[in-house]
Write a structure and sequence with these properties.
The structure is a single chain. The protein is α/β, with parallel strands linked by helices. It has five helices and seven strands; from the N terminus they run βααββααβββαβ. It starts with a strand and ends in a 14-residue tail after the last strand.
Length: 168
């Protein structure tokens, strides 16, 4: 599991770099991307392998168990849009999943339990320093989430390029 966050001032082309990464993955057939915004419960449901579809008959299962890895790739040009402001419950969930337990059990999804086997979460996101302060409050720094993020920071160049040349 890798949680990578591109940090920089607005306009440093974080979203451009993230978009290129997403297009490369899509071009080789990868399609397990997380939606742009969702609850932590829906996030866990999105991790269920697509081969396992719940029919109306199966909807009453109290526990869904699979031995296939539950994987998802979070691609968020603005990390705050994905996580939300001060959503420490979701950040704590991401902290637990980063540790790659053999399975993660969540007991309340519409009254049903879900077991995600071998949860594998990767994240490529963008943020500004101010956006990070809004997303993760100061008291959230000690919960372990921040130590799992790999921050890549870019200083402002001072150059304003209205129409940059397309990447080769």
């Amino acid at each position: 599991n890798m949680y990578i966050q591109l940090m920089g001032a607005p306009g440093t082309r974080k979203s451009t770099a993230i978009g290129i990464g997403r297009r490369v993955l899509k071009s080789v057939g990868y399609n397990r991307f997380a939606p742009d915004r969702l609850s932590k419960e829906q996030f866990l449901r999105e991790m269920i392998p697509p081969e396992i579809e719940l029919s109306e008959e199966d909807a009453d299962l109290s526990i869904l168990v699979t031995d296939k890895a539950g994987e998802i790739f979070v691609v968020a040009e603005e990390f705050g849009d994905f996580l939300g402001q001060g959503n420490m419950e979701f950040a704590t969930l991401l902290t637990k999943l980063w540790d790659n337990p053999a399975e993660y059990t969540h007991p309340k999804i519409h009254g049903k339990s879900v077991v995600v086997t071998k949860p594998t979460v990767n994240m490529l996101s963008g943020n500004t320093v101010q956006g990070l302060a809004l997303t993760i409050p100061p008291e959230g720094i000690g919960n372990g989430f921040m130590s799992r993020l790999l921050f890549v920071y870019a200083d402002e160049t001072g150059h304003k390029i209205t129409f940059p040349p397309p990447p080769d």
